[in-house]
Amino acid sequence: MSERMTRRSAFHRLGGFAVRRRWWMVGLWIAALAAAFFPLRQLGDRLSQGGFEVPGSQSARVQEAVQAEFTGQFEFSDQVVMQSSTVPVDDPRFRGAFEDVRAELLEAPGVGGVTDPYATPERSIGPDGRTLVATVGLTDDQDQALQNNDAVHEAVHEAVPHGGPIEVYLTGAAPFYAEFSEVTQHDLERAEAIALPISLLILIAAFGSLVAAGMPLALALFGLAISFGIISLVAAATTVSIFTQNIASMIGIGVGIDYSLFVVSRYRQELAEGHDVPVAVSRAMATSGKAVMVSALTVVIALSGTLLVDIAAFRSMGLGAMIAVAIAGLAALTILPALLGFVGPRINSIRLFRRRMADEGRAGGVWHRWAMLVMRRPWFALVGSLLLLAVLAWPARNLRLGNSGPDIFPPDSEPRVAAETVADAFGAGQAAPMQVLIEHPDGVLGEGFDDVFEVAGALQAHPGILQVDSIATLAPVASAEEARAVASSPEAAPFVETIVGNEGRATLLRVVTADDPGSDAVRDLVGELRAELPRLLPGGAEVAVGGDPGLTVDLTDEISSAIVPVVGMVLILSFFLLMLFFRSILLPLKAILMNAASVLATFGIIVFIFQEGHFQGLLGFSTAGHIESFIPLFLFTILFGLSMDYEVFLLARVREEYLRTGDNTEAVGWGLEHTAKIITSAAAIMVTVFGAFAFASLVPIKSMGFGLAIAVFLDATLVRIVLVPATMRLMGDWNWWLPKWLDRILPNVSLEGAEEPALPAPTEAPVGA
What we know:
There is one protein chain. It contains 30 helices and 11 strands. It is α+β, with helices and mostly antiparallel strands. The strands form 3 sheets. Strands 6, 7, 8, 9 and 10 form a 5-stranded antiparallel sheet that branches. A 4-stranded antiparallel sheet has the order 2-3-1-4, with helices on both faces. The protein is elongated, with a radius of gyration of 31 Å. The N terminus and C terminus are likely disordered.
């Protein structure tokens, strides 16, 4: 490719502009960092533990009713769990301890009431006689409850300190997410402490120079800080999940280092070939810089698929990752060339060992020899690689989605201990009961009471249900008339008022299941009840099944229904983007098929380990028997985008060589020779960053980090250095085929600039054809 053609590239001009106006460019980015500083400090307080509702679903309808129609119901609540191995619940010491806890809680901020378990022993005192639960009604909204959780927690443990004959635990949404925030922050700090030093060592090994190694790492952290500031601004206006910080950090550091690594590597090669600094920067931007832009666009396009899922938390995680990728790409294209203009030849300063850049890529290189070896037996390499990927993907056929509760925490975590104590004493469904909403136009305490009684009886008769709390089950009775009399008694009034709303036309039934709320049995039960209960009610009356079990079903259904549109959109947009930049029909198709194969293999590995529980002792977790519902689709969007990262970088150099030589086989060999070393270094960094999150305490983050690390490893090894050379050798010149009519109407935005020589027509038939 001639210097004249390169100079006409917009990216060549961008590199030159950044060098000439480097003071302005750096000043703009420093100003952006300063602007992000204050929102960045508020990020932790703005992230939400909510956002997992499914608008329009039955679980959302129940939640909305609780918030708007039941004035006696607290919108949010905690649960106090007290247990003793030596003191029974009816002992005065136990009752005194509970009264102390209750008194302290009523003085705590945001607490509106505490139920008396001794008033309803059949629902609140366990069959063992040594465990009780009490509901703590909160006047706060979800985020305020989280902020006040420390004070509520302190009140509980001031009344009954740990280590005595009676243990007390606090559980519920606020304690769960407070613990989640603390563990998440600890996991994030530990992951960064592991990933950053190892990444620096890999960069030093790749460049031999501390300056060259430090620049990509510093720029990645710089971009991530600005990304967090933007995410904080978004979180001030809408729901942003608490998961977003870890996801954005994981992705932002990985791609931020990679993008800068690609540009710095090419810049050093251009310097080694004798170009002065402005030309070297411009040429690096015209080649690697443009590949970075295509890579970032592809990742953002893939992540944009998350916006099609109607779950606020899911969309916010995708948006946070998109912001991190976009800022990383923009930084590599603007401030990085400006910094290279400042550093100049000193990019090779503080050498720890010498690397002969000018000799890299010459005849006899190991990667060129490897590529030629693969291309001598392309069918063997292709079939062998696909068989291995198929074996790895095989367990994915048993993928099972679910949603975890406190069991994602370490075994000694208080919310987990409390949930397990309640499950042992009352049954697995006690901690997260099902909620059934009945809306009756004739009034649930009037003519509609008989229908409520029938629904409650059907629920009580179900073998998977342990307990039903409702206006129709306040006492063991034989008829609806007797149940109505009990519900109308003055003694029952305080309880009835809390579960009757909408001016007497709606009521809530609390249903405790025998099995864990996330189990297959309970999910099947939700489906059965949603089908059967409406048949028990007359026209005009409605019923909705919600609570945590209903929410789990709705989340899984929403994500499952989004798979086809998300995958379809990502594949179609990625195909057209790659076709536009590579001027080829078959290369984008090949890239999509290979990426899909590596994603399926990754899913198989995740199911094998995190669902089926293999190596759980080694990795330090206990399997819940399912994969968190949001992970597979979210992983697909990330993995598909990241897989294109190395594909674009490799094929950009292969195309550059093909335009120079016109020989497809040699172009593949030299393209791999020029890029394989930097791709393996970049992949090693990605594996390190993602792998560091595999040490997280939270199983969803652990499985996400582990899956990303495995996917990048497979992509940079098996796919890029075996499958790509083999398939490109088999397709020959057809790799670069684009119909002339399509070539004429597509805008000329290829990776080589505004002008490029015409590609030779594909005369070589695919090998084996």
